[in-house]
User: What shape does this take?
Amino acid sequence: MKWAFFGTPELSVLALEEMASLNCRPDIVVCNPDTPVGRKQLITPPPTKVWAETNGIAVFQPASLKHETELTPLTKEDWDFFVVFAYGKIMPEWLINLPKYGTINAHPSLLPKLRGASPIRSTLLHDLSAAGVTIIEMDAELDHGPILTQLPVTLETPIPGRDLDTMLARICGDLLVHVMQEIMAKKVTPRAQPHEDATFCTKITKDMAELAIDPHQLPTGDEALTVYKKICAFDGWPEAFFIHQNQRVKIKRATLTPTGTLEITHVTPEGKSEIAFTQYLSVLAAREV
Assistant: This one.
C-alpha cells in the first residue's frame, strides 16, 4: 500500500506506533505547521513530525488545504489511501476523493455519538456508552461518512483521560490497518450512519475545568461522580482545579471510593510542586489557626 497519514498531536503518534508494530508505515505524514509553545513561545514541531523524522518518513506541513497548487507532495503521487486521525484541518472534497480507495478516518467514539472535536474527553464527561472506535469512509461533512467498522469499549466507571487516550488511539491504529487490508481485498461493505441519533461535542477549554468544591468537605453521591468525571476528562490538560483562599489548586490524582465519596490524593497548589492532598490540608490547617 502507498498511503499518507494525516494527524498532528500525540494521540496520532500512538496510532502510528500501533500501525508500525503491524508493519504498516505511511509513506508521508501530513501535519500542522510548527507552532510557538509555552511561556517562551519556542517554535515546536508537532509530535507526528518528530515521530516521522525519527522513523525516516517524509513530512508535509501545509498551512492550508484550500489551494491544490500548494499541495504538490500529495497531488503528484498516486495514492491508495489517505488516513486521517486527529489532523486538525477540514479536508476539501476533491482531496478526500484523490486516493484510489478514498480517505478513511478513525474517530474515537461510537459514531454517530459524539461527533466533533473532543470525543474521548466528552465520553468521560457526558456519555460512557459512547466509548469505542469507529472507522469511517470520509465525506465532505464532519464525522458523517459511512461506517467501515466499529469496536465498542465498556467503561463501568470513568478512567483518567490519558489512559483512555492511549487505549482508544492504539485501537484506532489496529483497526485502520485491518480496514485498509479489507478494503483492498473487497471484504468490507460501508453502512450509513443513523444520522438521526447523532450527538455532538465541542472543543475542550480551560474554563470548563474549574470545580466548585470545598477541600475540607469533598462531595459525595451524584455530585462526587459529576466532579470525578471532570477530573478524569481534564486529566493532563487543562487539568481540573478549584479555587481556595484565592489560590488555584490543580487536582493531579483522585479516585471515587466504593461508597461514592470523592477522594483526592495529589494536588498542585498555585506556584508550587505536586504534593499529597493530606499535606495540602495540613498546610491549610496551619494557616487557619
Observations:
- The chain has a mean pLDDT of 96.
- The chain has two domains: 3-201, 206-288.
- The longest helix spans residues 161-184.
